[in-house]
Amino acid sequence: MEHIHSTKIGKEEIKLSLPGLKLKTVISLSVIIALFMLYFKMPVLSLRFVGWAGSLFIVLIPLALNPRTFKAVKFIFVLLFLFIVLGGILSSPLFNAKRYRKMIGEVKVTEFTELISPINLEQVPIVDRSFAAALAEKKLGEDFALGSRVSLGWPTRQMVKGKLYWVIPLMHSGFFKWLTNVSEGTPGYIMVSAINPQDIRFVREVNGRALKLKYQQSSFFNQKLHRHLYLNGFVTKGLGDYTFEVDESGEPYWTVTVYNHRIGIAAPDGIGLAIVHAESGEIKYYPMPQKDGALDDSAVPEWVDRIQPAEFVLSQLDWWGNYVRGYWNTVFGKRDMLMVTEGYNIIYGNDNRNYFYTGMSSIGSDEGTVGFVLTDTRSKQTHLYKMSGATEYAAMRSAEGKVQNFKYRATFPILLNMNGVPTYFMTLKDSAGLVKMFAFVSVKDFSLAGVGENIKSARDDYQMLLAGSRIGSMTEGASEQKQSTVTVARIGSDVKDARTYFYITTTEQPKRVFVATSNLSSFLPLTRSGDTIQISYVESGENEVSLITFKNISVGE
């Protein structure tokens, strides 16, 4: 059957023929395409998303080839186009600036020391993601047969039984490797300590059972993680941020954020968490309702470290900073606008909660911050700490400048509480990616950078710099600061990195060594055994303690 169109140009009539497929044929084609799109494309079937509109457009193409359905399909195409265009415009910050600003929830101004406890040097994470991946790759390479069949997944830093680890799943390295392993899955995961690079574990068994990770994003067909969730009812909500985590007994799981768009077809926000057992595929869903300005995560198991995707949180923080005075201020005035600094990290609070950390800077500021925010990785509760200081990359350049002759590169820093003072900590790596030195840099003044070949020497160098700086004592406001009047038992000195260090033992505490540099007091070189001195320091429980202040009473200082 042909559908004939005719038109006239001048005196000539031209007949145009459009081949029309039979109605049954086009319907069959559309059904086949629809099933294909649902299985492989897996669009979210909700008006809050636009992916289904593109899929529907492709499904309707065969129907456009039949003259009986052509006009109806053309009308639907127009509606789909209007839905995408008008939906995008009406969901934009142009009309919803206040709603975008409130997406992050209430931002509480908090004292830094209320959230982050003073750091224990033995618990400072020195292994970053790239280093952990390299160590895991080396561990995997010890099994030559296995290394050819699997690859390493994305490392996730997680607290397991009170210790920090990078947990790295073994993934299928391709379709044919998956086809070979389809009935068994990959044999476990690797754990790399974030504290001790010598602590690397290849976990092949849990509770006496050999591990077989079947469900993962690198699997195919029904074992593909996203499709497994989609086919089990998660068709009307978005799924993202597939994170591999283990519980306290070592059982492997995937934690998947379930999200929706809060403002029309835009502004994604986590509304729940799906936990999938990597072996059995068992799914448990935990919805998170709003409660007191934050998400109620009380039903989610405690071993889960992360619920909110970092990209959602960072976008919402940007909206909170940008739309402080509405949309048009972002175009013209730009008054009081803030933005998140480049990069982020995860730190652990004294409440055993994880926080996304990022700095906040004024629009147009390259080197400085006006403060930083800590956002709970589970409930999204956000705390703002107001303090001008250096951005993470400015601190990294400062640390690299201290060892520029070695051409070491700094890793992205971690925020620490050094006895009440916010401090960036980072490792310095050579061109081969090996950790060579450590650095502490003041957030308030990035020119104060202490470096050393081990964490303790770097900390001591940093503490001495702070003691003689305009910032003052690094323990300002710290509750554990102690002051004592004692008698010198012994005193000695040593020169390191062009700086003279003095080591003092006292009659009252003979097993402790107090360390100071000459910039702390000009009377240190004059001090002798038997002198009475007045000192202050932070009680850390260590046998070697750095002094904050020093006064020699015997020589009349």
Walkthrough of the structure:
It is a single chain. It is built from 13 helices and 31 strands. The protein starts with a strand and ends in a 5-residue tail after the last strand. Among the domains are: 2-90, no CATH class; 392-467; 481-552, OB fold (Dihydrolipoamide Acetyltransferase, E2P). It has 557 residues and is of the alpha+beta class.
What's the end-to-end separation, in Å?
110 Å
Helix content: 10-25%
> Percent of residues in beta strands?
35-45%
Protein structure class: alpha+beta
Q: Provide the residue-averaged pLDDT.
A: 88
Largest sheet: 6 strands, mixed
Total DSSP helices: 13
Tell me the number of strands.
31
Question: What integer value in Å does the Rg equal?
Answer: 31 Å
Low-confidence stretches: 1-18, 473-479
User: What is the approximate shape?
Assistant: elongated
Task: Pick out its properties.
single chain, 557 residues, OB fold (Dihydrolipoamide Acetyltransferase, E2P), six-stranded mixed beta sheet, five-stranded antiparallel beta sheet, 36% strand, disordered N terminus
Write a concise synopsis of the structure shown.
This protein has 557 residues and is α+β, with helices and mostly antiparallel strands.
Show the helix and strand layout.
Blueprint: E1 2-9, E2 12-19, H1 23-41, H2 51-60, H3 67-90, H4 93-101, E3 107-109, H5 112-115, H6 129-141, H7 144-147, E4 150-152, E5 156-160, E6 163-172, H8 175-181, E7 189-193, E8 200-203, E9 205-206, E10 209-210, H9 225-230, E11 238-246, E12 252-263, E13 266-277, E14 283-287, E15 290-291, E16 294-295, H10 310-322, H11 328-331, E17 338-340, E18 345-348, E19 354-362, E20 368-376, E21 382-390, H12 392-402, E22 409-410, E23 414-418, E24 421-429, E25 435-442, E26 449-452, H13 455-467, E27 481-496, E28 499-506, E29 513-517, E30 532-538, E31 544-552
Parallel strand pairs: 3-21, 29-31
Antiparallel strand pairs: 1-2, 4-6, 5-6, 6-7, 7-8, 9-10, 11-12, 12-13, 13-14, 15-16, 17-19, 18-19, 19-20, 20-21, 22-24, 23-24, 24-25, 25-26, 27-28, 27-30, 28-29, 30-31
Helix pairs in contact: 1-2, 2-3
